[in-house]
What does this fold into?
Amino acid sequence: MEFPELLFEEEQAYRTACRQVTAFFYANENSLSDVSAIGREIKCCYTALEPFFHDYTESICHECATPCCVNRHGFPDFEDLVLFQAMGISIPEYNFHVIDTDICQFLTKDGCSLTRCMRSYRCTWYFCDYVLDEFEHSHRIIFGKFDSAMSRLGDKRGMLLRQFKHLWFEDRDLTSQ
It folds into this structure.
């Protein structure tokens, strides 16, 4: 079984998913204690990654004439909603009345207005080839640390989602009987 797909054009489905995930966490606080603990670890992973992003992408991305940051990439998927709840973060408000291919609604002249852990996972792991090549070739040792930190984030995220998924679908099976 898979989580529902959230599409930028379907505001009502998105809001319903937000309510469902929030209600599930509230109703299953004890069962989700391990998920929430991993969520706190993930929040620490984001904090550890922030200097890398700040130091090695901000100067390049700030000067880019065609930023990769567009609305549809910043839109969270269902898994992001789960992570936000597990980390104890309020889900950001999105303007659904923007063009999905336009520059992201959160991108300002000073960078993203959302903290790293409030962004969709896509916003964290995606880098254009130019940024990756520049970072890897100019700072090989630091890039290795960055790569390890990103792997840790991905591993923790996978662990959290597997545990949550088991409880989420188990609950759905019980309520359908």
